[in-house]
Specification:
- This protein is α/β, with parallel strands linked by helices.
- It has 28 helices and twelve strands.
- Helix 2 crosses helix 15 and helix 10 packs antiparallel against helix 13.
- It is elongated and about 170 Å long.
Length: 782
């Protein structure tokens, strides 16, 4: 609050910079908004037209394009079975992974499913396939469809199977996809009829499930037949082996527990002990090798002067469990820390530091010796393990030697008994599977089921009316803005005061409204020279036939007259102390209204009671003379040649107190620039300063000829006249660039023929103030 009440001079420089930056940002945003609004005002017709065309095209597309309805049916793959069914299943059910589900998607989209559904629903006669409802692209690409001729329906082969074209058309409308990472498969079908879309989607789902049931039933039947044949063979083999065992026992009088020899148990126990002993020996040997490698690495580190404890800190090292090594390592680390501190404090060659390093060396040697001692202990463990292993091997060899004394009859009996049990086990296993197969064949179950049947969709899926209309609306607006921007870029003309100031770096003195010239154009009469003695007897009054040139005088309260007064005010403000002000009016191109403005400016100055002279200096095209003094036979050229005086050549307008000096050229003037830049011309205009308060000079345009450049020494300032909405910016810039002596003395620019109604679209600051009833009640001719 205190900061806001301070004066600008009392604020800190940073605060002043922040305020200036905020103001600059606000001005930039305001300028951007004004630019956008100005662009909308200027190009709203183009934007509106493009939007209407785009919206109309979207509406026509919606009317022409046949609707498409989309129905979905959802299938759960990998249907979980009950425990009873899982136990009775003959074929193993693989897990439902991503690859298997994608494979089922391809099955749904296969030719077999398509053929089944096409036959079942008789889709060959469906309107979607026989061409009775062509699509929008078909209508555009096939001109024959414009006149009602539909393409021929897909043909069927003689055996009743659908053609490949029909199946391809069906596949184009059918799609199947997995929903996320679930086991659900969604079947989608598109049709011009919502009922038909739901019917086909459900038919495809049912056809897929029936295909799964058929495949499983066929697989189960094939497995059952194979199991039946295999059971017969296994039954015969098991019975034969059992009979052989009984017959052998009876013949050899063999009685043993479970048919096994008595020494088998002992051999098995000794074998287990031998395995354990060998494992213990291998473990002891591995530990011994590890200790030896650690001892060798520590010795090498000690020889290099490195810390041997780093070799001990390896994974799976049991040396770290030794309390002696742990204590030695702690002492070593403490001495290493002190050695580092003392070396930094006293230097590496100090006696105390050397003593520390000596102690560290002794500790490293102690660590190595302790590792060697542990290794020797491990060597003793290894020797003990070897002795145990040798004892177990000896006992096992004795047991085996004893078992070899078993008679050959027992071995034969054991072999026959094992074969009998194997055949019996196989037979029982296959019998169980055969029973499961018989039961599963009577209770078929598919791996998939329908969890969401398709229903007729409430609305069409394509084309989406709201989306298309929104796209058409915004697309039209975007296209209109692009066309408007292109139009504005190509249409480089002057329409606002800001464009004058930005492109020419000149002030815009006035916006001169457009006037309608109702007087018919007439050719200039052929003039004949008369005797100078008799020419003074001809009354030299300015003609009143061209109404457009007299608008300022006849309608002094009109917007046109007010715009001319703005030009006069700018002249008075910029040339306040000049006697006989000479003002030259020029333009970049012909027919921009400079002569009309010059005549109106002279009339208003004359009606104000000032002495004003209007001079036509366009020697090559004296259009002003042809309108104001069509009967003149002498003028500026005769005065410069000394043939006539000023009083003998000027014409008068009593009602406006204006004097006019015309130009009469009997033949084309080829040296106009030399005439206007001559000493006689300079002397003439200097003499005219003493006789008139204002001298308005109508000059040639800058771009076609160079005559206006020659008058830079005659006039005090120039007023550049530019036609509103027509003259190109580059033309005016090029004309001023080539006429540097003129551009340096240009007072400002007057925009002529301004369409005041259209100006509102290009300038946000413009209002039709001229219609104010308090100041412009009388616009009729006075």
């Amino acid at each position: 609050m205190l900061q806001s009440n301070m004066l600008p001079s009392e604020r800190s420089p940073l605060a002043v910079e922040d305020v200036a930056l905020d103001q600059a940002k606000a001005e930039g945003l305001d300028h951007l908004l004004r630019g956008i609004l100005a662009f909308i005002r200027q190009q709203y017709l183009v934007i509106l037209l493009a939007t209407l065309i785009s919206v109309g095209a979207g509406y026509a597309y919606l009317k022409i394009t046949p609707p498409t309805y989309q129905a979905q049916a959802k299938i759960l793959f990998g249907n979980p079975k009950t425990q009873f069914v899982q136990q009775q299943s003959v074929l193993a059910d693989p897990p439902a992974d991503a690859a298997q589900i994608e494979s089922q998607v391809q099955v749904i989209e296969s030719k077999a499913i398509a053929t089944t559904v096409i036959k079942q629903l008789n889709l060959a006669n469906d309107p979607d396939f026989n061409g009775s409802t062509p699509s929008f692209l078909t209508l555009l690409m096939s001109p024959r469809n414009w006149f009602g001729s539909a393409p021929a329906p897909p043909a069927e082969v003689s055996d009743g199977e659908p053609s490949d074209d029909l199946i391809a058309a069906f596949d184009d409308r059918l799609s199947a996809s997995r929903l996320g990472i679930s086991n659900v498969i969604e079947i989608t079908y598109k049709s011009s009829s919502p009922t038909r879309a739901a019917e086909v989607a459900n038919a495809v789902a049912k056809a897929y499930i029936n295909d799964q049931l058929t495949w499983r039933l066929q697989s189960t039947q094939a497995a059952t037949e194979w199991l039946q044949d295999r059971l017969k063979t296994l039954g015969k083999q098991a019975l034969a082996s059992e009979r052989a065992v009984d017959a052998f026992k009876h013949e050899n009088n063999i009685v043993s527990a479970d048919g096994k020899p008595i020494d088998d148990q002992r051999v098995a126990e000794l074998n287990s002990r031998l395995v354990a002993a060998r494992a213990q020996t291998a473990e002891a040997l591995a530990r011994l090798n590890r200790y030896q490698s650690l001892a060798q690495a520590s010795a090498e580190s000690l020889a290099r002067g490195a810390d041997p404890s780093t070799d001990i800190e390896t994974p799976m090292s049991e040396v770290l469990n030794s309390p002696i090594i742990t204590a030695l390592r702690q002492q070593y680390l403490e001495l290493s820390r002190r050695e580092g501190e003392w070396s930094a404090r006293y230097g590496r060659n100090h006696q105390a530091v050397a003593n520390l390093r000596s102690k560290m060396k002794d500790i490293r040697a102690s660590i190595v010796e302790e590792v060697k001692r542990i290794g020797e202990t491990s060597r003793g463990d290894y020797i003990v393990a070897q002795q145990k292993q040798a004892e177990a091997e000896k006992q096992l060899a004795q047991a085996i030697a004893q078992s070899r004394n078993i008679t050959s009859a027992e071995l034969t009996m054991r072999e026959l008994d094992n074969n009998s049990k194997s055949y019996r086990s196989l037979y029982e296993n296959f019998l169980q599977r055969y029973t499961s197969a018989i039961q599963q064949a009577s209770f078929p179950l598919a791996e998939a089921r329908i969890i969401s049947p398709a229903s007729p969709p409430p609305g069409k899926s394509k084309p989406k009316s709201a989306m298309i209309m929104v796209i058409a609306l915004f697309g039209g607006i975007g296209a209109g803005c692009a066309l408007g921007f292109l139009r504005g870029t190509l249409d480089r003309v002057f329409r606002t005061q800001a464009e004058i100031e930005d492109n020419l770096r000149l002030n815009c003195l006035s916006l001169v409204p457009m006037l309608k010239d109702n007087s018919p154009p007439r050719p200039r009469p052929r003039l004949q020279r008369v005797d100078p003695k008799t020419s003074s007897q001809v009354p030299r009054l300015i003609a009143q036939e061209s109404g457009i040139f007299w608008t300022a005088a006849n309608m002094p309260l009109s917007p046109y007259a007010e715009s001319i007064r703005a030009i006069k005010l700018a002249i008075d403000l910029n040339l306040p102390h000049t006697n006989g002000k000479i003002i030259g009016l020029t333009s970049a191109l012909p027919d921009e209204g400079k002569s009309t403005v010059a005549a109106g400016l002279a009339q208003l100055i004359g009606r104000a009671g000032r002495r004003v002279l209007l001079v036509d200096c366009d020697l090559r095209n004296p259009s002003l003379s042809a309108r104001l003094a069509p009967r003149a036979n002498t003028g500026l050229l005769e005065v410069l040649n000394g043939q006539q005086s000023v009083d003998e050549t000027v014409w008068h307008a009593p009602q406006s107190n204006m004097t006019f000096m015309p130009v009469v050229a009997q033949t084309p003037v080829f040296n106009a620039s030399e005439i206007l830049s001559s000493d006689r011309a300079k002397a003439l205009f200097e003499n005219l300063r003493d006789s008139f308060d204002y001298i308005i000079v109508d000059l040639p345009p800058l771009a076609p000829v160079i005559d206006a450049r020659a008058t830079s020494s005659l006039v005090d300032c120039f007023v550049l006249v530019v036609e509103w909405g027509k003259t190109k910016i580059e033309v005016v810039q090029h004309a001023l660039h080539n006429a540097q002596n003129v551009s340096e003395n240009v007072l400002g620019v007057a925009l002529t023929k301004t369409n005041m109604k259209a100006l509102k679209r290009y300038s946000s600051h413009h209002r039709d103030y001229y219609n104010d009833r308090y100041y412009h009640q009388y616009t009729a001719r006075k």
